[in-house]
Amino acid sequence: MIEGVGEAVIERPPEAIIAFVTSLERYKRADLKIGRVLEERRDGDRIFMRHDGALRGIPGPPVSLEMVIHGTTAVRYRGIPTFPSRFVLTFDGGFELTPTDGGTRVVHTERFRFHPPWRWFAEPFLRDWLAADVREEMLRLKALVEAEPLE
After folding, report:
1. 8, burial (CB in 10 Å: exposed 0-12, middle 13-18, buried 19+)
2. How many CB atoms lie within 10 A of CB 139?
3. What is the pTM of this model?
4. Is residue 60's pLDDT more than 90?
5. CA dist., res. 105 & res. 99, Å (int)
6. SS3 sequence, the chain?
7. N or C: which end of the chain has fewer CB within 10 A?
8. Residue 68: partners with Cβ closer than 8 Å, 6 or more residues away
9. Burial, 80: exposed, middle or buried (Cβ in 10 Å; 0-12, 13-18, 19+)?
10. What is the mean pLDDT of residues 11-20?
11. For 103-119, b where at least 16 C-beta lie within 10 A, e where not — what string?
12. What is the average pLDDT score of the chain?
């Protein structure tokens, strides 16, 4: 397993951050791993998403995921095994949100588990890159969300 963790204090309420991260078209401006958005359906606090993308510049198969919003404190997601991605990897992660005096502290985690034989070269190749990418993603998220007008 490889994991990336990033953190930022964003000068917006949790609701504004949740609205941003649960819209793939908006969020892919912060998460450069996301490519074309192929599908996005919402049912209350559950969102089904399907997109393609790339890890460290290498395109991968389209992936499906389910996001679940937990009030104003968390958004968690997990990959849904689909063909052909289920033969390559599983992934999960999320956003933990804590109100602070300066806005909202956001901790974002991404975890990837590659299946053999991909594991033996993908994890060493991606480990340091993913850690740095998620930290940079949080800097972009902060800048993008804070640039939006307060509603």
Report:
1. buried
2. 12
3. 0.95
4. no
5. 6
6. CEEEEEEEEECCCHHHHHHHHCCHHHHCCCCCCEEEEEEEEEECCEEEEEEEEEECCEEEEEEEEEEEEECCCEEEEEEECCCCHHHCEEEEEEEEEEEECCEEEEEEEEEEEECCCHHHHHHHHHHHHHHHHHHHHHHHHHHHHHHCCCC
7. C
8. 45, 46, 47, 75, 76, 77
9. middle
10. 97
11. bbebebbbbbebeeeeb
12. 96
Query: What is the distance in angstroms between the CA of the first residue and the CA of the last residue of the chain?
Result: 39
Question: What is the structure's pLDDT at 151?
Answer: 72
Residues 6 or more apart whose CB falls under 8 angstroms from that of 44 comprise none
C-beta separation of 77 from 94 below 8 A: yes
**Cβ(15)–Cβ(70) below 8 Å:** no
Amino acid 66: pLDDT: 98
Residue 84 has pLDDT above 90, yes or no: no
- Does position 85 have pLDDT exceeding 90, yes or no? no
Model pLDDT for residues 87-98, shown as the tens digit of each residue:
989 999 999 999
Lowest-confidence range among 27-31, 59-63, 66-70, 112-116? 59-63
Type of residue numbered 144 = L
How many whole angstroms separate alpha carbon 2 and alpha carbon 111? 6
